[in-house]
Amino acid sequence: MVKPGSIIGGFIIAISIALQVVTLLEIAQFWWLLFIWGAGIIAGGFYIWGGTAFGESEKMEHFTISGIGFGAIISLTAYFILFQWDNIVDTLELSNENWVIGAVGFSALAAIMAAASFLFIITGTNKQMKGVKPGALIGGILISVSLTLQIVVVIHIRKAYWLLVFWFVGLIGAIALSTGARARGYNSPTSFVIAGVFIGILLFGVLYCTLSDKAITAIDTMSNNADSFPTHDHLPTWLAPLLSFVSGVVAFMGVLFSAASLPKRSY
Fold first, then answer.
1. Which residues contact 139 (CB under 8 A, 6 or more apart)?
2. H or E segment at 205?
3. Each residue of 152-167: pLDDT tens digit?
4. Residue 195 near residue 221, CB atoms below 8 Å
5. Contact assessment for residue 149 and residue 163, using Cβ atoms and an 8 Å cutoff
6. How far is CA 199 from CA 23, 72, 203, 237, in A?
7. Considering only Cβ atoms within 10 Å of each terminal Cβ, which end of the chain, N or C, has fewer?
């Protein structure tokens, strides 16, 4: 029996590949743009994988990864336009630098087409998508956005890579909190204590790094000793730990959104 959905899905993914190849060969040979297209594959593939999975936990994990893919499409598109403009201009095959928007935009379009192609493919298999978890999708998007914000901080504002600790502290604290909310017996208090410790570290870290002159001087010294100066080193030093704190909080909320998509949540 002919499967028109699968045919259309294959056609769309072929067009998305062609669009991405043309973008890289004819507009800008900025190979990092492939990450946007790859994010589309991850977003679409894990979306239908989660929709056809049976276990609730498995669905949550797959939809969270799918959300990370969708978030990566959004985050990378914004990041390349806002922070990689000059680097893309250096690789342009065209004389007008406004084609930077075209190169990034076409890559984002190719990624969206790649993600959408999986929906057509799954219809050709006669399988039904059941139990879609929007909370897990939102959580994955937040995790992806938070990581992008943290990367912007340590690369373009201040090259103090230990600020990545904020992101990991927020992530681990949320995992401990969600684990404690679902645990039974003695495991629950232990998880809550761990969550409280990491939340306290997150709050103390942002207050210390934004108010202490010694911490601000250390961040400036580490950044000045880096191989290259940040592209936005004119911004105040306290902004770097503050944005890292925001990144950690967003990651914290992303994990909680994903965990809350499981049934019988108690928080």
1. 64, 67, 253, 254, 255, 256, 257, 258, 259, 260, 261
2. helix 187-211
3. 998 888 888 888 999 9
4. no
5. no
6. 44, 26, 6, 23
7. N
d(CA 37, CA 77): 10
Q: Quick: pLDDT tens for 95-122.
A: 889 999 999 999 999 999 999 998 888 8
Encoded amino acid at 173, one letter: G
Measure the CA–CA gap between 27 and 38, rounded to whole angstroms. 19
Does the model's pTM come out above 0.90? no
- Count CB neighbours of 208 within 10 A: 12
Q: Which residues contact 255 (CB under 8 A, 6 or more apart)?
A: 139, 143, 171, 174, 175, 178
DSSP letters spanning 242-253: HHHHHHHHHHHH
159 within 8 A of 221, measured Cβ to Cβ: no
